[in-house]
Specification:
nine-stranded mixed beta sheet; six-stranded parallel beta sheet; alpha/beta; binds nicotinamide-adenine-dinucleotide; Dihydrodipicolinate Reductase, domain 2
Length: 375
C-alpha cells in the first residue's frame, strides 16, 4: 500500500483515482496553507484519519507517507519536490516542472541522488484522444510524422488576482515573457515523435496589448526544431480575449493527418488508407471511428471513476506502478526538463527578436559543463 501526501488543493484531482485503487494506494495526509482548502480536502477524501498540515515541512517530517503529489503554485514546485526527495519520498509534480534553468539542474541532480521516483504530471498526455492518436501513429496510419502543432489558448486574465490581491499567476505565469506554460501543448505532440528530442527553439510574439498591465506577450508562437530535423510549433496564449481551446493539436505525416478541431465537431483524421496518395482529395473522418485502437486499458472502463475518459486514473496508476517497480515512468525528470526548458528559453528568445536557442540534451549523467544555456 503506497501512502500519499498531497500539497496544494489542486492535488485533489488524484482523489477519485486513488479511491478506485483501494488495495494499492491511500491518501494519508494533506497540506495547504489555506484552512478552507484543508477542510474541503477532508470532505473530499472522506477519511477521518487523514492528517492535515498547514506547514509542508511538518507533513514531510511527521506524516506516514511514501510519496508526495506537489500541486502548489509553479514557483514552489522545485523546492517542494527536492524537499520531498531528500526526505525519502517519491514525487509526482504538477506542470510546469520549474521556473528557472538552474532549478531544472537542481531537480535533476536531486532525483538522481535520491534514487526515488519523479513523475511529471502532464495529464494532457493521458487524454483518450491523445492516447488514441499515439496508437495510430505507432501503427503507421499517418506514415512518417514530420510536423506537429499544439495550442493552449486559455484566457486566464481573471485569475491574475486571488481573494482581491495580486495572485502568483500575475508573476510566474502572466508576469513572465514567452511560452511560460508549454507542456500541455508539447507533451501530447512530442509523444508522437518517439525518442526524438527538441534541439532548438525560437519564439515570436505580436507584442503586448493587454489592458491589465501584465508583462506576458499577447501570445507566443514557439518553433521547435527536433534532432531529426522535424518541426513542432506551439502557441501559448493566456491573455487573448477569446473562448478557451486548451488542447488543440495537429499531427502531419506522409500518409495523412490528425486535427483536434477548435470549433466543435470533434477530432478528425484524414488518411490515404490504401497507401496511395489522394493528391488533393483528402476528406475528414471522426477520429473515434478508430476507437478500437485505443490502448486496451482505456477500453476496460476501469478508470472511468476518475474522469477524463480514464486519463485521470491512468496517470496515477503509472505513478504507483513506477513506485512499485522502481523504474522511472515515461514522463520522467528528463522529459519534464526538456519540455519545461522550452518555456524558460522562450523568455530569452522572444525578448531577442526570435533568436534561435539550443536546448540542452537532458539525460542521466550530464557534466557540469553541459548544464548551461548556449546563446
Ligand atoms: N495539469 C493541469 O491541468 C493543471 C490545471 C490547473 C493548474 N495546474 C497547476 O497546478 C498548480 C496549482 O494551480 P492551482 O490552479 O490549483 O493554483 P491555486 O492558486 O488555485 O491553488 C494553489 C494552492 O496551493 C496552496 N499553497 C500555496 N503555497 C503553499 C505552500 N507553501 N504550502 C502549502 N500550500 C500552499 C494555496 O493555499 C492554494 O490552495 C500550478 O502549478 C498550476 O500550473 C495544472
Amino acid at each position: 500500500m503506497i501512502k500519499i501526501g498531497i500539497v496544494g488543493a489542486r492535488g485533489l484531482s488524484v482523489v477519485q483515482a486513488i479511491k478506485a485503487m483501494p488495495d494499492e494506494a491511500k491518501i494519508t495526509a494533506m497540506c495547504d496553507l489555506d484552512e478552507g482548502a484543508l477542510q474541503h480536502a477532508k470532505d473530499q477524501i472522506g477519511d477521518p484519519d487523514l492528517k492535515l498540515y498547514r506547514i509542508y515541512d511538518d507533513m514531510l517530517e511527521k506524516a506516514d507517507i511514501d510519496a508526495v503529489v506537489v500541486s502548489t503554485p509553479m514557483q514552489l514546485h522545485v523546492t517542494q519536490s527536492i524537499a520531498a526527495l531528500q526526505a525519502g519520498k517519491h514525487v509526482m509534480c504538477e506542470v510546469t516542472a520549474a521556473v528557472s534553468m538552474d532549478e531544472l539542474w537542481w531537480l535533476i541532480e536531486a532525483v538522481e541522488k535520491s534514487g526515488k521516483i519523479y513523475m511529471y504530471a502532464e495529464n494532457y498526455c493521458y487524454m483518450p484522444e491523445v492516447q488514441l492518436v499515439r496508437q495510430l501513429v505507432k501503427k503507421g496510419f499517418f506514415g512518417e510524422i514530420y510536423y506537429g502543432e499544439g495550442e493552449y489558448t486559455h484566457d486566464c486574465t481573471s485569475l491574475r488576482t486571488w481573494h482581491g490581491k495580486t495572485g502568483w499567476r500575475s508573476y510566474w505565469q502572466m508576469g513572465t515573457r514567452g511560452s511560460f506554460y508549454p507542456t500541455h501543448s508539447l507533451g501530447p505532440v512530442m509523444q508522437c515523435f518517439d525518442d526524438d528530442r527538441i534541439v532548438s527553439i525560437a519564439s515570436f510574439s505580436p507584442g503586448n496589448h493587454n489592458p491589465f498591465g501584465l508583462r506576458n506577450d499577447d501570445l507566443t508562437q514557439t518553433m521547435c526544431q527536433l534532432e531529426s530535423g522535424k518541426l513542432v510549433k506551439i502557441r501559448v496564449d493566456t491573455i487573448s480575449p477569446r473562448p478557451h481551446a486548451m488542447a488543440y493539436y495537429q499531427i502531419q505525416g506522409t500518409k495523412g493527418c490528425y486535427e483536434s478541431q477548435r470549433l466543435g465537431g470533434g477530432p478528425m483524421i484524414a488518411l490515404d488508407e490504401d497507401g496511395k496518395p489522394r493528391e488533393g482529395c483528402y476528406t475528414w473522418k471522426p477520429l473515434f471511428d478508430y476507437k478500437e485502437y485505443l490502448p486496451e486499458r482505456y477500453k476496460s472502463g476501469k478508470g472511468d471513476a476518475a474522469g477524463h475518459g480514464g486519463g485521470d486514473y491512468y496517470i496515477v496508476k503509472d505513478f504507483i506502478e513506477a513506485i512499485k517497480t522502481g523504474v522511472q515512468p515515461e514522463l520522467n525528470v528528463y522529459k519534464a526538463a526538456e519540455w519545461t526548458s522550452v518555456a524558460l528559453l522562450s523568455q530569452l528568445s522572444v525578448t531577442n527578436n526570435g533568436r534561435l536557442l539550443e536546448v540542452p540534451n537532458f539525460r542521466a549523467g550530464m557534466s557540469w559543463a553541459e548544464k548551461k544555456i548556449k546563446i
